[in-house]
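Hello,

Our lab assistant flagged a job as stuck in the queue for most of the afternoon. It eventually completed. Since we weren't sure the result was trustworthy after the delay, we are filing this so someone can double-check. Below is the sequence as submitted and the structure that was eventually returned. Let us know if re-running is recommended.
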Amino acid sequence: MNNTATSRAELLEICAQLAAEKGFQALGIRDLAGAAGVSVGCIYNYFPSKASLLAAVVEKIWEGIFHKDRMPRQPEGFLANVRWLFERLHSGSEQFPDFFTAHAAGFSSGEAGKGREVMNSYFGHIKRGLIKSLSNDPCLRADAFDDVFTPAALAEFVFDSLLALFVRNAPDCETLLALIQRAVY
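-- returned structure --
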């Protein structure tokens, strides 16, 4: 058995592969040690608990799903970003079938906050990206927003709608895109 792993990043890559192949619920310290060919103690050098391992894997998978290199270019506008987000959610679900429903459940009740913290961090990042995309879209109507209907409110609504469409396993987000088109363009 190899008692030294080359890096934390390598271990996380192995975890992501395990999650894709066997499901997120199958991840554990012993599973990772076996797949990496290292001792359990070696894993604990990088991850002091199963919760810290799962939190790092959750972050790795979110990064993979929404990697910056896959972002549409700004000239495509807000609608293109919304469509891209919807497509990335579906693509991520195909690659990691149980990830979206199971990753929070993989933490014990006292440690569930770590998984939610990582998830909420990514959700916040996505919402900020939506707001930025709105502010950079030259095609928006000048009077599209006011004190109540703000870019942040629209971003929150769009994000919540995308998640609802995803959970319902909707085949597309065309109705949402048409609603956005009518509201701000």
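-- support follow-up --
The delay was a queue issue, not a problem with the job. The result is valid. The chain has a mean pLDDT of 84. The chain has two domains: 8-50, 62-184.
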